[in-house]
Amino acid sequence: MGANKQHRSSQAPLDLKRTYQKFPMSKAQLIAFFAKVDADPALRLQVDAATDGSAVVAIAHTEGFLFSAASLSRHQRG
Predict the structure, then answer these.
(1) What is the distance of C-alpha 62 from the center of its chain?
(2) Per residue, what are the HEC states of the chain?
(3) Is 29 in contact with 65 (CB distance < 8 Å)?
(4) pTM (two decimals)
(5) Cα distance between residue 11 and residue 26, in whole Å
(6) Tens digit of each residue's pLDDT (9 = 90 or more) over 45-60
(7) What distance, in Å, lies between the first and last C-alpha atoms of the chain?
(8) From CA 13, how far away is CA 2, in angstroms rounded?
(9) Domain limits, the chain
């Protein structure tokens, strides 16, 4: 998962309040989770080591973010 993952570090910081209003909850949760991943090197290592989308979802759930593997897949496709 790590090598194929797109990184957000070159983009502007997220306005999470606006994000939550603009997108359905699962997408807002995804965006917030990946913002946290970008800011936390230890979390980044966990996500990069994940073997599939379900493993990423499990990591996100332990961090308090709720979204499905299907939502993650749609997010990754763009």
Answers:
(1) 13
(2) CCCCCCCCCCCCCCCHHHHHHHCCHHHHHHHHHHHHHHHCHHHHHHHHHCCCHHHHHHHHHHCCCCCCHHHHHHHHHC
(3) yes
(4) 0.68
(5) 21
(6) 999 999 999 999 999 9
(7) 16
(8) 21
(9) 19-77
